[in-house]
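Postdoc handover notes: sequence design on the structure in folder B. Input tokens:
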């Protein structure tokens, strides 16, 4: 088996692990950010359908919430709900946007060093799943590399 194949598994596994760790760190940092009132401007589920080479379709649902907030007299707009995953099944996406109807007042967590860096929620979404997928991909890649090495 080509080293490229197991290298790809290890690489993408590492990417998933890094994304998971980064999301968790950013989420933890956001828990200590100051908060400011905001208002929901729009709330919807964006639907994306794609087709693979075998003509099978898959659909993903991404909750989208846009909100406005003001810091020191300057208006900003944000759309991050939480750190981590941003696409879910339809039911989960609907439940997320149901929490954020248009014109609702919300609490916005903002990075004091970069006021446009904001989130409505400070809990990370999907970090555990991303970590598990990453570890599994890396594990498969490592097992494939060991088998290839031992079979020489």
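Designed sequence:
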């Amino acid at each position: 088996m080509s080293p490229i194949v197991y290298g790809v598994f290890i690489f993408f596994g590492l990417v998933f692990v890094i994304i998971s760790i980064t999301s968790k760190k950013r989420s933890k940092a956001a828990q200590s950010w100051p908060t400011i009132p905001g208002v929901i401007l729009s709330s919807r589920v964006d639907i994306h359908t794609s087709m693979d080479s075998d003509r099978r379709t898959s659909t993903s649902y991404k909750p989208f919430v846009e909100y406005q907030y003001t810091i020191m007299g300057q208006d900003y707009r944000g759309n991050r709900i939480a750190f981590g995953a941003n696409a879910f099944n339809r039911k989960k996406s609907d439940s997320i946007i149901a929490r954020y109807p248009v014109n609702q007042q919300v609490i916005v967590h903002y990075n004091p060093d970069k006021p446009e860096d904001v989130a409505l929620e400070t809990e990370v979404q999907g970090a555990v799943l991303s970590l598990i997928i990453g570890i599994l991909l890396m594990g498969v890649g490592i097992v494939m590399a060991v088998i290839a090495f031992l079979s020489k």
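Context for whoever picks this up: Residues 1-31+123-152 form one domain. Don't rerun without checking with the PI first.
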